[in-house]
Amino acid sequence: MSEYQFRETEKKWQTYWEENKVFKAADDFSKPKYYTLDMFPYPSGAGLHVGHPLGYIASDIVARYKKQQGFNVLHPMGFDSFGLPAEQYAIQTGQHPAVTTEQNIKRYIEQLKNIGFAYDWDREVRTSDPSFYKWTQWIFMQLFNSWYDLVDDKARHILVLEEHFEKTGNQLVKAACDEDVESFSAEDWFNFSDEKKQEILLKYRIAYLSEAVVNWCPALGTVLSNDEVKDGFSERGGHPVERKKMMQWSMRISAFADRLLRGLEDLDWPEPVKEMQRNWIGKSVGAQLAFRLEDSDEKIEVFTTRIDTIYGVTFMVLAPEHDLVEKITTDEQRKEVEEYVNVAKNRSERERMTEVKRVSGAFTGAYAIHPFTNEKIPVWIGDYVLAGYGTGAVMAVPSDDDRDKAFAEHFELPIVEVVDEHDKIINSDFLTGLSIKDAQMKAIDYMRDKGIGYAKINYRMRDAIFSRQRYWGEPVPVYFKNGIPYLLEEDQLPLELPEVDKYLPTEDGEPPLARANNWKTEDGFELEKSTMPGWAGSSWYMFRYMDANNKDHFVDENKQKYWQNVDLYIGGSEHATGHLLYSRFWTKFLYDLGFLSVDEPFQKMINQGMIQGRSNFIYRVEGENKFVSHGLKDLYKTQALHVDVNIVDNDVLDIEAFKKWRPENENAEFILEDGKYICGAEVEKMSKSKYNVVNPDDVIEKYGADTLRLYEMFLGPLEQFKPWNTNGIDGTHKFLKKFWRLFHDAEGNFKVNDSEPSKQELKALHQAIQKAEYDIENFSFNTSVSTFMICVNTLTDLKSNNRAVLSDLVRIIAPYAPHICEELWHLLGNEGSVSEAGWPQFNPDFVKEDEHTYPVSVNGKHRDNMTFALETPKEEIEKAVLENPKVQKWIDGKPIKKMIIVPKKIVNVVV
């Protein structure tokens, strides 16, 4: 075999791994475990482009390396297979989303296997598989049957809460609950009807049904989460989104806010992701107080972190959606207020928070009474105040808040300075002269004594909306009796998706499940018509991989205790406040109820950077069917057009392929440079519209999977953004050929020897072992590839074909380029897979420096190099240098003034 035949070899070893289940994770609790995981992919119809496998290759290298080190490695793959794209396609074509999803998954698996990933495919999970979503539904049931005990700071079963109610009512209960819960005694509870009791319990449940302000997208016919809305439009499809009140299932994630915040400290995550979560949770220490409305029993509750500025309050602002707006608006102001509310409610929260220069509002006509001064202050509405943050109302202090100040200046409202340049309180009655901190404490004492307010910790994070008015999602295991939600029995799970005639909402606006025939229980009660959101299945899937085929439990207790949680999680930072936060919430909940032994799902996380596309351009002469090469384009008036990068090689356009790609240009004229059409180039995001998407299948067909794997790692540090440049991949491919030739003679015959390795061979090898081990442990994969290249070059120069040296070299390159290494391991006479052959032991003695090559200069000019043992005495070095014929030539018999010897640096003879 003269040349490495990568196509045949790669298929051969991929088949071997699959047939022999080489990467099947054993439930062998005696071995140390290592669990590495890629973020749950959604199987899109477009399949993978070369940017997608970046993180997968990195985690695969780690998985293979850990396996070689003797760890029991869990490295699974599955699919987040519910979602909008398949459903949108179903709406357009009438094809069931399950069919599209199955086709997409099949394509993904084919591509993933072609790249040679060491996945345990026996543990594959899919969120849309009833055997999986049975347990998503089961977890929902546990959430529904739980409440959050603020005394114990944990979730507990709802039966414990009912016991409290039976003994003492709710007056001594400290729980996360709705704000409108009324006080009742044990006797009251005893006398309540069953329906009344269920209504009360619903206000305490962690999974609960309530009216909420949501992001409603009419075009998609569903509610969207905040991270699915960008600038007032749906992220998918770009459809307008409006804010409206609807009955929705929600999750009381806000009860876990402080634990979610504290838990970040012990996680080995990128600091920007942790900071995004901190900001999203948004812990604030402050005060809650009430402003009484003039001539009314109503009060406006506000939360402030700056109660020390209370005397600077000159007006109040309510969110346009605030419940009091309609009640307090005067007849004179009603038209203006209603018009403003209609406009403001359709602006996304993101817009309202970020557009600081845009000032708008409307006066309600109502006045509040300042609780410290008893003065009247006007009540306005403004869209910079959000209904879901705090109380949906602010006491405006324009002297000390930029948005309040902009509002006051725009509407010519009073501004009173209350803090001087030395951070002392001024113009504030009994607070005047105090520091900010002292004023806060004194103001809180005053509020408490007067019964108008109290100290409070607040969180920006709101409860998570948990229902979507879509078809392609997990059915919620709930039925309704007299409008009250009740759970199905566990033995009725999974509640499977029914068949429907269309995947659209009904004509009267109900979700698609309303189209199902008899979507009811056996007793005739209506089943819930909304489905769960996309984040439901992805919030716990990492634990299902530990026991993917268990029909009796979502995960076996002993298996979970062994695998614990994910040791290495690789994925994008864009999921910081969605999937990553929700999965932490569900894990803490399941931990509280004793179903898990850990309260965090991912111990270490790395955010891989994006591989950007490298676009190519051709230049068409305006008004003509003529194209000018890049270097000549300035001689003409041209228009730059994207061209398919797959018909460009090293920026040289394949003109015949271009004519086939664009038949309308079959007779076009091409103005060339040196007989070639040179394209322009630019780094951009990979997208179909820019024709710069590179399919990994094409790269593998031309260069092989090992080349793709090595090249993606070689591009740069894992976390950085970097451009894909097909021009550079050839060098990586040539390296693998050079690596192959180390094991073969000039005629292409496999040839290694069993002689004793030389000192230089062992040094090159063990430098590579040390660096490869360090790099994988520190996730610096790009520098390992450079190390391999240096080692192979050195061994090639040494004409090394030593069996012991080459065997160890194969083992350290195997995690990166597994196919070629499996073949070479086999040719070396070994049985089984190289991934089961262990990791070579680094010997520091082989890389110790025992000699140094000195550059020797005469009067500062380099004349020769001389090698000496490190322990050589200075006198012997001097003697040998002066006896060197080349040195003698340049001394030319002149007297030696001095000789400078800097150990392990230089020798300089001065004459």
UniProtKB/TrEMBL annotation:
Domain (Leucyl-tRNA synthetase editing) ranges: 278-425
EC class name: ligase
Entry EC number(s): 6.1.1.4
Span(s) of short sequence motif 'KMSKS' region: 685-689
PROSITE patterns named among the record's database cross-references: AA_TRNA_LIGASE_I
Binding residues annotated for ATP, in chain numbering: K688
Catalyzed chemical reaction(s): tRNA(Leu) + L-leucine + ATP = L-leucyl-tRNA(Leu) + AMP + diphosphate
Chief subcellular location: cytoplasm
Boundaries of every Methionyl/Valyl/Leucyl/Isoleucyl-tRNA synthetase anticodon-binding domain copy: 762-876
One Gene Ontology cellular component: cytosol
Residue ranges constituting the Aminoacyl-tRNA synthetase class Ia domain according to the UniProt record: 13-145, 680-711
An example molecular function term from Gene Ontology annotations: leucine-tRNA ligase activity
InterPro entries membership: aa-tRNA-synth_I_CS (IPR001412), aa-tRNA-synth_Ia (IPR002300), Leu-tRNA-ligase (IPR002302), Leu_tRNA-synth_edit (IPR025709), M/V/L/I-tRNA-synth_anticd-bd (IPR013155), Rossmann-like_a/b/a_fold (IPR014729), tRNAsynth_Ia_anticodon-bd (IPR009080), Val/Leu/Ile-tRNA-synth_edit (IPR009008)
The keyword Chaperone is annotated on this UniProt entry: no
Subcellular location: Cytoplasm
Keyword set, alphabetical order: Aminoacyl-tRNA synthetase, ATP-binding, Cytoplasm, Ligase, Nucleotide-binding, Protein biosynthesis
PANTHER family associated with the record: LEUCINE--TRNA LIGASE, MITOCHONDRIAL, LEUCYL-TRNA SYNTHETASE
Protein name in the entry: Leucine--tRNA ligase
Organism for this UniProt entry: Marivirga arenosa
Gene symbol of the encoding locus: leuS
